[in-house]
């Protein structure tokens, strides 16, 4: 039976010749070996939340959804072994049972741990690196079907390549993570203005554990979000309050405004100003993962770029002006976050204090012209794209932006000399 795989955003799909759901590393090995004998490419997919074609193949597609166990937990050291297909959502709940937590998270938790780390997914926090920085070691099925355990102790260069590996080195089947003791966050959302936030941006980023903000095109209103660790006890919302805020307001009501914007593009400036005014002040005390992530039911397409923090103000101002120019139908806010320098060879935050700027378009609306215009701005600031989000870069344009690019390619040559894990996306961004 032919099966079609489509990603979360609905903008990428493929019809693999095989669509397998292995339960064990041995089954992954067997699939890779069989694909090699048949001359088929192999790709792995987790939750399908990447906006690019990174998982797409007409060969063998391996869904890791059944490889979702927590294998071992050491509460004294925080070292925890998990299978690659476990989602961040499920992992957070399992870790909480042992008094542990991921140090940082993004604002969604539907991704698998392998998919999130292989694409360099991140949260926000000027003193915190992306999610892959928590990896102590990785179990990878390489191109010849053998199992390789990669760590800083076994080979530091391989480890720096594998942590953000785009699935180009092999199929990640398990990971050992170093985790933090569970902690409570004090989260505060409040409105501000663009001038106030840009003037105080460095102070806010340095003065809070986690700081981010959202700018609305056609408006000078900004919504800020700060999350800080606290010794106060968690005070979870009631089910009714959670449903009203996360489902009714942040999803259903916001989805209605996006539907209006899609049907009546001329009303987008008014819609944006309405949404900006409607987003008010809130305060919460809760365990970290419930503060970091919330449901995202409104579908969209996204581009995100990592730029050096010294260029943040200029780049944010330029993107906001572009989104407000009337040239494009932009009904989503612009999201700005901050992360610490990283040492993974293909991490977009490699070697520099980083500001991430993300732009979105409601699903079903034209996104490519706007994203190309935003990318021109990011190119001017030596921007590096988030690997799981839309961009138009190639190996030729990316190589000069990563000092470790050639080192990564050398590791790829050793792990997958026959390009068993290649697909058109990897050929574009890494070369053949």
CATH class assignment of the largest domain = Alpha Beta
The spatial strand order of the largest sheet comes to 16-13-15-14-18-19-17-20
The CATH superfamily of the largest domain is FAD-linked oxidases, C-terminal domain
Shape by Cα distribution:
globular
| Amount of helix | 25-40%
CATH topology of the largest domain: Vanillyl-alcohol Oxidase, Chain A, domain 3
Main β sheet profile: 8 strands, antiparallel
Chain-averaged pLDDT: 96
Output the structural class.
alpha+beta
Cα-atom radius of gyration: 21 Å
What count of domains describes the coordinates? 2
What is the CATH architecture assignment of the largest domain?
Answer: 3-Layer(aba) Sandwich
User: Termini, distance in Å?
Assistant: 31 Å
Task: Compose a concise summary of this entry.
Helix content is 32%, strand content 25%. By secondary structure, it is an alpha+beta fold. The protein has two domains: 70-181, Uridine Diphospho-n-acetylenolpyruvylglucosamine Reductase, domain 3, CATH 3.30.465; 184-385, FAD-linked oxidases, C-terminal domain (Vanillyl-alcohol Oxidase, Chain A, domain 3), CATH 3.40.462.10.
What does this protein structure show overall?
There is one protein chain. By secondary structure, the chain is an alpha+beta fold. The protein has two domains: 70-181, Uridine Diphospho-n-acetylenolpyruvylglucosamine Reductase, domain 3, CATH 3.30.465; 184-385, FAD-linked oxidases, C-terminal domain (Vanillyl-alcohol Oxidase, Chain A, domain 3, 3-Layer(aba) Sandwich). Helix content is 32%, strand content 25%. The protein contains 13 helices and 20 strands. The chain has helices at residues 25-38, 88-96, 113-118, 156-163, 194-207, 239-263, 268-278, 288-292, 312-323, 368-380, 395-398, 405-415, 424-430, and strands spanning 5-6, 13-14, 18-20, 42-45, 60-63, 70-73, 79-83, 100-101, 135-141, 147-151, 171-178, 180-181, 184-193, 210-215, 221-230, 282-287, 300-308, 334-339, 354-362, 384-385. The protein has an eight-stranded antiparallel β-sheet with strand order 16-13-15-14-18-19-17-20, with helices on both faces. The longest helix is centred in the middle third of the chain and has 25 residues, at 239-263. The chain is globular.
């Amino acid at each position: 039976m032919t099966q079609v795989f489509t990603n979360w955003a609905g903008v990428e799909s493929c019809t693999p010749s095989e669509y397998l759901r292995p339960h064990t590393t041995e089954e992954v090995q067997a699939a890779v070996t069989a694909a090699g004998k048949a001359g088929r490419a192999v790709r792995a997919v987790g939750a399908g939340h990447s906006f690019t074609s990174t998982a797409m193949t007409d060969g063998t597609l391996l869904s890791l959804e059944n490889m979702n166990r927590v294998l071992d937990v050491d509460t004294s050291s925080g070292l925890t072994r998990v299978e690659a297909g476990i989602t961040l959502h499920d992992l957070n709940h399992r870790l909480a049972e042992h008094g542990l937590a991921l140090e940082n998270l993004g604002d969604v938790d539907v991704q698998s741990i392998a998919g999130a780390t292989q694409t360099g997914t991140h949260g926000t926090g000027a003193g915190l690196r992306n999610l892959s920085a928590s990896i102590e070691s990785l179990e990878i099925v390489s191109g010849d079907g053998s199992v390789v355990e990669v760590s800083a102790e076994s080979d530091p260069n391989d480890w720096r390549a594998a942590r953000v590996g785009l699935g180009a080195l092999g199929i990640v089947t398990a990971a050992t993570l170093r985790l933090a003791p569970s902690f409570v966050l004090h989260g505060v959302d409040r409105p501000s203005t663009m001038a106030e936030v840009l003037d105080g941006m460095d102070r806010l980023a340095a003065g809070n554990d986690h700081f981010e903000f959202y700018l609305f095109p056609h408006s000078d209103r900004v919504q800020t979000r700060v999350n800080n660790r606290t010794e106060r006890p968690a005070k979870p919302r009631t089910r009714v309050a959670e449903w009203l805020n996360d489902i009714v307001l942040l999803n259903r009501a916001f989805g209605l405004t996006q539907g209006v914007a899609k049907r009546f593009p001329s009303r987008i400036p008014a819609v944006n100003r309405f949404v900006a005014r409607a987003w008010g002040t809130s305060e919460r005390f809760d365990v970290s993962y419930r503060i970091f992530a919330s449901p995202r039911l409104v579908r969209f397409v996204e581009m995100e770029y990592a730029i050096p923090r010294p260029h943040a103000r200029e780049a944010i101002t330029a993107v906001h002006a572009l989104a407000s120019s009337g040239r494009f139908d932009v009904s989503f806010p612009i999201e700005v976050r901050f992360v610490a320098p990283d040492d993974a060879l293909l991490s977009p935050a490699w070697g520099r204090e980083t500001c991430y700027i993300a732009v979105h378009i409601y699903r079903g609306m034209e996104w490519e012209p706007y994203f190309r215009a935003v990318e021109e701005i990011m190119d001017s600031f030596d921007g590096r794209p988030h690997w799981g989000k839309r961009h138009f870069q190639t190996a030729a344009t990316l190589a000069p932006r990563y000092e470790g690019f050639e080192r990564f390619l050398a590791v790829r040559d050793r792990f997958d000399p026959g390009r068993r894990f290649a697909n058109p996306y990897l050929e574009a961004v890494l070369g053949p």
